[in-house]
Amino acid sequence: MTNVKPEIMCYNIYIETQDVYAFASYFSAEMEETMEILFYRYNNICEPDILQTFQAFGITVHTEEMEMTDKSITPRQCAVRITDWLAEHTFAFVFSINFFPAISYTCNRFKVPYVCWSVDSPVPELFSNALKNDWNRIFLFDRTQYQFFHPVNPERIFYLPLATNTKRWEEIILSMTEDDYTDYGGDLCFVGSLYTEKCRYDALKLSPYTQGFVDGLMNAQLKVYGCNFIADSLSERVIREIADADPDFYRGVDTYRDTDRYLAAHQYIGIKLAALERERTLNRLAEHFHVNLYTRSSNRTLPKVHCMGPARTLTEMPRIFHASKINLNITMRPIESGLSLRIWDVLGCGGFLLTNYQSEIPEYFEIGRDLETYASMEELEQKAAYYLTHEEERLEIALHGYEKVSMLHTYEIRITEMIRILHSLSC
Length: 427
Known about the structure:
By secondary structure, this protein is an alpha/beta fold. It is built from 18 helices and twelve strands. About 45% of the residues are buried.
């Protein structure tokens, strides 16, 4: 077994969530019936845990699931369906992962709070004029993203980092067998997309000048962690050429400001950066270490990486995180300061995490005690080599990281804070 044994993990460390029950009771008293909400779902990875948390708090959750099976649903169809729900029910609020302008406009018309938790970046829909609606209660996971959008609707946009479901993971980890540790274990492991199949930048036909400028800018950004300077560095000429090169470039007809700079930097160059960084990082590590990769992306550019195929999120992923000696996290650059879901989930599974530095990490974790970070390829190689040969320190850090998220960073705790804010707006 290569990581913290389940029997020595502190599985009973949970914060009391009586505040949530109190707030749920408050809403129930206001409505004179059981608190009910509508959850608009589209198959986001966070949805099952958040749904489970709402239900654990005694909230009656109705789900709208048409977009889980039909990705061609239009904003108009979405608005019609939400209208039907609101015409027939009295909800404390409507909830979704990420921001849907059609839901926001509909809730605003019915004067029903629309609560969303943004878990991705970039999210072009945040540029919609719907962001200004009075009945919005919008939670953003990345502080830089929050600071960017907060002035648009300062009384209704809030910062809320992501979380993990340690209770879900413990059920799986406690059932792990010796064969699981053998099958899912390894020295270095990365689970995630390589973004090669999502990179629209590669299809652009750009001038030699713009191509050279962007290549130089990306190479410079790849050497810097904790600070994203792509957007501020783009000239109007480069932005215009990128926008004109893609006939499907997002051009919102209902936006409160120009989105071209943001999208060129994050949706095009940012995704390309993610693809480059993950390819270069994994190839470099594979020159010296045994690296396992779990992904649906093409692995043809990773000759020495051991490609294991995709991993099932709710069953295989926690086993991989727990059994691997070192779990790598390579945050995509459009997440400028925040902590991706991968960070919370690796720690929530009792795995040892080695991640690129993000400026928000010290707000929640002690580097070298709860997890480890790197700020250069040289530091990444050095720390990987060190922790592969210092098992006791590695296991201790994994245990501390697990204890920290169990006590402070579960979905129960985040939803407690969310409902506390909703309560304050209702007073």
